[in-house]
Design goal:
elongated; DUF2975; 199 residues; membrane; single chain; mainly alpha
């Protein structure tokens, strides 16, 4: 009697792969939105460290300013708070672009298009997004330290501090890796198109 074996299921169509894609999609948006809200809220918390600002899960003063010895001013006028929020938007824009690219990748994975053009463009977009996060982190460091030091000096003078730490090095390396992976996936897409042409 002939035994019929069940057809093999590709790992990219397995339930575990779909759960992983959904998990990455949800986690990337959740982390981005939480980070965005907290970074904006820190500028409202300046001057309220002994009150509700003390419940912030991160330092009121950005870590880049703490490294050069800057402390939060006792109070801050509203328009300077908005300047701080605008500075937060610089790296946030790069982060949200990278998350949007991750969103496109996950949606393509869930649709079964592993080597599709959307995935190739998505990984390249993530790579460029991480490189943009590296550059905007330096711009953010310069802007935040200049603003807080200028306010601390009574709007007389200030300092600009730049530094490359573990975060900057990590996003730089990951960005380059994503660009390399984008080229690999583009080759996979080309080979898949050639294979489909022979079928």
């Amino acid at each position: 009697m002939t035994q019929h074996l069940p057809p093999s299921v590709s790992s990219v169509h397995s339930p575990s792969f779909r759960r992983l894609a959904w998990g990455l999609l949800a986690a990337s948006w959740a982390c981005a939105l939480v980070s965005l809200v907290l970074s904006m809220a820190r500028w409202a918390a300046i001057g309220h460290e002994t009150g509700w600002g003390g419940w912030m899960p991160l330092s009121v003063v950005p870590s880049q300013a703490l490294l050069v010895g800057l402390t939060p001013p006792p109070s801050m006028e509203t328009h300077w708070r908005w300047v701080g929020v605008a500075l937060e938007c610089i790296p946030a824009a790069a982060m949200l672009y990278a998350v949007l690219c991750v969103h496109r990748i996950c949606r393509s994975f869930l649709a079964g298009a592993v080597f599709g053009p959307a995935v190739v463009h998505g990984f390249r977009g993530v790579g460029w997004g991480f490189l943009a996060m590296f550059v905007t982190s330096l711009v953010y460091q310069a802007g935040v330290t200049a603003l807080l030091s200028w306010l601390a000096s009574g709007q007389q003078n200030g300092l600009v501090a730049l530094g490359v730490g573990p975060f900057e090095m990590s996003v730089l390396v990951v960005g380059l890796m994503m660009l390399l992976l984008g080229h690999v996936l583009a080759e996979g897409h080309r080979l898949q198109a050639e294979a489909d042409a022979f079928v």
